[in-house]
Design goal:
The protein is globular. It contains 8 helices and 4 strands; from the N terminus they run ααβααβαβαβαα. It has 195 residues and is an alpha+beta fold. A 4-stranded antiparallel beta sheet has the order 1-2-4-3, with helices on both faces. Bound molecules: flavin mononucleotide. The site of flavin mononucleotide (FMN) has 10 residues, from strand 3.
């Protein structure tokens, strides 16, 4: 996908809210801590996400500092450790697979995706950045964070904080520290026709 310095909505569309363009996955984070009120506000946004039968299958486990944070850092793949350990808030995102009555949450991961995006958008509104990471040690996250595999899908890690100085990143990541582009609208939204 082409890297661009700016994100341009598709010509002819009505204005989309700037918040969707302003959210992008930064790697340069300031180590400045987030207040507990800021952290709670981010997760409060997730709380209101829609889900199948209002099942709310998401679980966000987070750490900021101390031995808990050391453990969380160790559960990232090395490539993500190079930058995500600077972010003041590190989250692991899991989704319940079902409920105690035996109902399987077929859309649990989908619903949890909506909740993470709520956090991402709320973060932009608060002047914060987010960066989701699939590059995590999934088996170790299950094991060390007490998330049994029969009950939870471990989906991703999530770094959150204020933007930091790009010069603190390794050279290759400095070059990639910019918003990227998207497929064209016509590739992702197609008026279906039977003819
Ligand atoms: C589920 C998921 C997993 C991702 N895994 C990683 C990752 O391990 N490392 C990384 O640097 N970025 C990761 N990303 C960030 C994506 O590369 C990024 O969202 C994508 O390129 C679009 O760019 P944008 O978020 O800046 O708009 C991940 C994003 C998502 C949603």
């Amino acid at each position: 996908m082409t890297q661009t310095a700016a994100r341009t909505p598709t010509a002819g569309t009505a204005d989309i809210d700037q918040v969707f363009l302003d959210r992008w996955s930064t790697r340069a984070f300031s180590e400045e801590p987030l207040s507990q009120a800021e952290i709670d506000t981010l997760f409060e946004a997730a709380r209101w996400a829609p889900s199948s039968s209002n099942s709310q299958p998401w679980l966000f486990l987070y750490a900021t500092d101390g031995p808990e944070r050391e453990l969380f850092n160790s559960l990232l793949r090395p490539g993500n450790q190079t930058w995500a350990t600077s972010a003041p808030l590190l989250v692991f995102i899991a989704a319940l697979k079902g409920n105690d009555e035996g109902r399987v949450f077929r859309s649990g991961q989908f619903d949890t995706g909506a909740a993470w995006m709520s956090i991402a958008i709320q973060a932009v509104k608060m002047g914060l950045s987010t960066h989701c990471m699939g590059g995590i040690l999934v088996d170790d996250v299950h094991d060390k964070l007490n998330l049994p595999k029969d009950k939870f899908d471990v989906i991703a890690g999530l770094a959150i904080g204020r933007r930091g100085d790009v010069s603190g990143l390794p050279d290759d990541l400095q070059a990639r520290e910019m918003p990227n582009d998207r497929k064209s609208l016509g590739e992702v939204a197609v008026r279906w026709s039977n003819s």
